[in-house]
Design goal:
The chain is of the alpha/beta class. About 25% of the residues lie in helices and about 25% in strands. It has helices at about 80-85, 110-125, 140-150, 195-205, 220-225, 230-235; strands spanning about 5-15, 20-25, 35-40, 55-60, 100-105, 130-140, 160, 180-185, 210-215.
Amino acid sequence: MPRLPALVLLALLATGARAQTEALAYDGGWTERTAGEALVSLPDGYDADPEARWPLLLFLHGAGERGDSLALVGVHGPLKERRAGRDLPLASPTSRFVVVAPQVPEGQRWTTGRVVAALDDALARYRVDADRVYLTGLSMGGYGTWEAIEKVPERFAAAVPVCGGGNRLGIGAARDVPVWAFHGAMDTVVPVGASVEMVRALREAGGAVRFTVYPDAGHDAWTETYANPAVYEWLLQHRLSDRAGR
């Protein structure tokens, strides 16, 4: 097999005390082989206990953050919250997430292969609790979130798609994945009906779905969502092992 380009993971401590860059193999697999980059933010206290295992939050950006500048993936979402000093506010510091935010090159979109490759690299490199792996994304990343939980539902303990949509005919495969979807009622970029269809189809398949519609919001349903501590607390209520026997 030819040598593949590297996925560069830029690890930033939440405290900003130091940063490190590391190169890992990125095998897109599935339908493509690609190289990519991801911004990885480690929570405060990550280095304090070498035995601790942390929950992982994989964040998929929107179309406007595609390109070759990793700074873009921190413009919205969990990394924005952490940069503002909120560090995903939770009751227990040990429940704070390792946040992995891969970037899609200009002109491309999220694929399950790209999502899985970034996830596998992060699991191999960081002290992550594989029982607590979560997926979220906004707009184009919301579509990527719906697609990934349909294609590889066994990889994620819970998911939060924001102002996205997807294949309602196949989403029943994700019926065991707890989902909390968000959308703005006044969205003219991705109409709220895109989420409505996915939520309805997943519920009809027996899925456990929460759905929040912001009545006065347009396409930006993400600012309020990612600033809400309840979203992160809800994610942490779920573990992959909870599905045993279902």
